[in-house]
Write a structure and sequence with these properties.
- The chain is α+β, with helices and mostly antiparallel strands and about 140 residues long.
- The chain has one domain.
- About 20% of the residues lie in helices and about 35% in strands.
- The protein has 3 helices and 9 strands.
- Strands 1, 2, 3, 4, 5, 6, 7, 8 and 9 form a 9-stranded mixed sheet that branches.
- A hairpin with a 5-residue loop joins strand 6 and strand 7.
- The radius of gyration is 14 Å and the shape is globular.
- The protein starts with a strand and ends with a strand.
- The mean pLDDT is about 80.
C-alpha cells in the first residue's frame, strides 16, 4: 500500500488534499499518472479542489472530506529541505506539488540513484512528485 498527497502552493498560502491510500503505485495500471495528469490542469484554488474531488471519485470514493484548510506559505516553505528530515511535515510516500505562487521554489532532496543531495527549483505552473525525500526520473512536469 502506498500513500500520497496533493499540494497546491499559491502566492501567500498552500492547500493540500487528504492523504490517499491504496493503489497509488508508480505503474501504469494504478492512479499515479492519472493524479499527475489531473494536477496539470489546475490553475487556481477552485480548480485544485475540483481536481481532488474528481480524483477521489475516480480512484477511491472516500466519504470523508478530502480537502484540508489552507495554511500560510511560510509554513510550507520551511520544509522544502527534504534531505534532512522528511516525516516532520510531509509524511506520505509520494507527494505531488504544483507551484502556482509565481515564486521560484527551491527544494533540497536526495537523488534516487546516487543519494546525493541535489537542489531543484520549481518554477510557476510546474509540477513535481517526490517519493519520500527522493526525486526520481519522470517526476517533473513543466507546463
Amino acid at each position: 500500500m502506498t500513500r500520497w498527497t496533493f499540494y497546491l502552493i499559491l502566492k501567500d498560502k498552500y492547500i493540500r488534499s487528504v492523504e490517499f491510500n491504496w493503489d497509488m503505485y508508480p505503474w501504469e495500471e494504478w492512479y499515479w499518472d492519472m493524479g499527475f495528469q489531473m494536477l496539470d490542469w489546475v490553475i487556481d484554488e477552485k480548480g485544485f479542489i475540483e481536481m481532488v474531488l474528481k480524483f477521489n471519485s475516480k480512484a477511491h470514493n472516500y466519504w470523508d472530506d478530502v480537502m484540508y484548510v489552507e495554511w500560510k506559505f511560510e509554513e510550507i516553505e520551511k520544509h522544502f529541505d527534504m534531505s534532512k528530515w522528511y516525516y516532520d511535515f510531509w509524511f506520505s510516500d509520494w507527494i505531488f506539488i504544483k507551484n502556482m505562487s509565481w515564486k521560484k521554489l527551491k527544494f533540497l532532496v536526495k537523488d534516487y540513484e546516487s543519494w546525493k543531495v541535489i537542489k531543484y527549483t520549481l518554477i510557476n505552473s510546474d509540477i513535481i512528485r517526490f517519493n519520500f525525500w527522493q526525486l526520481r526520473k519522470g517526476s517533473i512536469k513543466k507546463s
